[in-house]
User: Fold this.
Amino acid sequence: MPAPALAAGAGIGLRAPHYGEIARTRPALAFLEVHSENFFGDGGPALAVLEGLRADYALSFHGVGLSLGSADPLDERHLARLEALVCRFEPALVSEHLSWSSFGGIHANDLLPLPRTREAIDHVAGRIARVQDRLRRRILVENVSCYLELGEPAFPEWEFVDAVVRRAGCALLLDVNNVHVNAVNQGFDARAWLASVDPLLVAEYHLAGHERGERGLLDTHAAPVAPEVWTLFREAVARIGPRPTLIERDACIPPLEALLAEAAHADAILEASRSASLDRVEAPA
Ligand SMILES: [Fe+2]
Assistant:
């Protein structure tokens, strides 16, 4: 049975604490997102849950382990598993991060930033193009939160991301919270980042929560979306347009109704942008 078409509305991550409730109640959502690697096995309850939901929801497969920017060879075993999963479920969206997380076969449990150089653009864009050839589809790459600078950057982050996406022929997954976190920590204007984005390249938004650490903001995905990020999202949608939007929560998973309330707020902003009435969408309590 074909999956429902993807609408430019809000979705949430399908996470284990909510498997039963989502399967039972089938809340109205534009899509469900899963981390691809969690479904690489040949069987088990998680795959069975996803199989049971695929007829009712468009799916977004979001990868965290492909290490697109690494200097290591692309992990063909990982890619083969992703290819099999994509062939099986035919998700509406397949995405990864514009980052690296492995070197010399050793994997870090983090999404590390790339040096913003011309050489890095060529390198990562070539690897994204190879992944797309293998999967026979366009993928999305996500701008990541960044806590260190590797060398002297040749470009601001927004120019680097734009160049990679254009060179690779992929699409941009614009994580609005990551833009905010980097802007605060690095002292640039988040609006300059958003103003530089070509709307034609953006295929999805992410909205996540962050927390304040001793030395700045931490992109933890463990809190509700912050008011400043809602404001930035509203401005992004007004300029770029409505796109599928994920409420991204990976830790301190709240009751399902809390995520659905955030998704409803994102939907209200997306809907208002269609009628140019963004000023009338009130911030969530
Ligand atoms: Fe994200």
